[in-house]
Design a protein that fits this description.
114 residues, mainly beta, six-stranded mixed β-sheet, four-stranded antiparallel β-sheet, 50% strand, globular
Length: 114
């Protein structure tokens, strides 16, 4: 069974930092491009960042220079380091396989207070 479990969210003041983790199991993790996504209340889920199997990264314009995606294939985990957080970053954050996604998990709530 393929599983993704997100963690690391929480409440932080504007300007603060959080590090999200996503532990994967059930697939050969190192072969897949992974992505972090977020969903604002009442809005569609949007792509935040991706990292390929060769560690090439891409970011949404809204997070460039503030967020960093990384992966540890030995731990089958993908991370999202979020710095200089803004209230508009408040959302539920999810990870998934970019090109062959599975059912979305619970995600992890990130709340940034002003």
């Amino acid at each position: 069974q393929v599983q993704l479990v997100e963690s690391g969210g929480g409440l932080v003041q504007a300007g603060g930092s959080l590090r999200l983790s996503c532990a994967a199991s059930g697939r050969p993790f190192s072969r897949y491009t992974m992505g972090w996504f977020r969903q604002f209340p009442g809005k569609q889920r949007e792509l935040v960042a991706t990292i390929t199997r060769t560690y090439i990264t891409n970011y949404a314009d809204s997070v460039k220079g503030r967020f960093t995606i990384s992966r540890d294939n030995a731990k089958t985990t993908v991370y999202l380091q979020m710095n200089s957080l803004r209230p508009e970053d408040t959302a539920v954050y999810y990870c998934n396989f970019r090109d062959s996604p599975i059912d979305w998990g619970q995600g992890t709530q990130v709340t940034v207070s002003s």
